[in-house]
Design a protein that fits this description.
Helices cover 88% and strands 0% of the residues. With 135 residues, the protein is mainly α.
């Protein structure tokens, strides 16, 4: 005979597994490792994006740069470029820290509900095995 509560529980578990696959992947990491990994990805992404923006701006201003190549103050230009880069990295690292920390916490909360439902499902199967054993 079909146990409706068991079917509902299995449906909820299947929906969770389909909708929140990343929660199970996230749970493989400790919070600090997950945040560190995301921060490394974030810094690399910001660096690549910053370099691409510099190349685009440089190409856009190529005529000016060539015409004034001798008179440009490269030291102050380098300091400004590195300063903007440092500010960008700091802003994105702080934002990434907050976002990845919240994402981890939410995933763990959802995963705890999922694990509780799995325990309930295991009890259903254990009860079913006990009934088969007594027959």
């Amino acid at each position: 005979m079909i146990n409706n509560s068991k079917v509902k529980l299995m449906t909820k578990l299947a929906v969770y597994e389909k909708k929140h696959k990343e929660d199970i992947e996230i749970s493989k990491y400790s919070k600090s490792d997950y945040v560190r990994l995301n921060l490394i990805k974030n810094v690399l992404s910001v660096t690549v994006a910053y370099i691409l923006v510099l190349v685009i701006v440089g190409l856009y201003q190529i005529e000016y740069l060539i015409a004034n190549a001798v008179t440009l103050d490269y030291k102050s230009l380098g300091v400004r470029i590195l300063g903007f880069y440092a500010i960008s990295v700091i802003v994105f690292v702080l934002a990434g820290l907050l976002i990845s920390s919240q994402r981890y916490s939410k995933a763990i909360k959802r995963l705890n509900k999922y694990l509780k439902r799995l325990k309930i499902l295991k009890k259903y199967y254990d009860e079913q095995e006990e009934k088969k054993g007594t027959l």
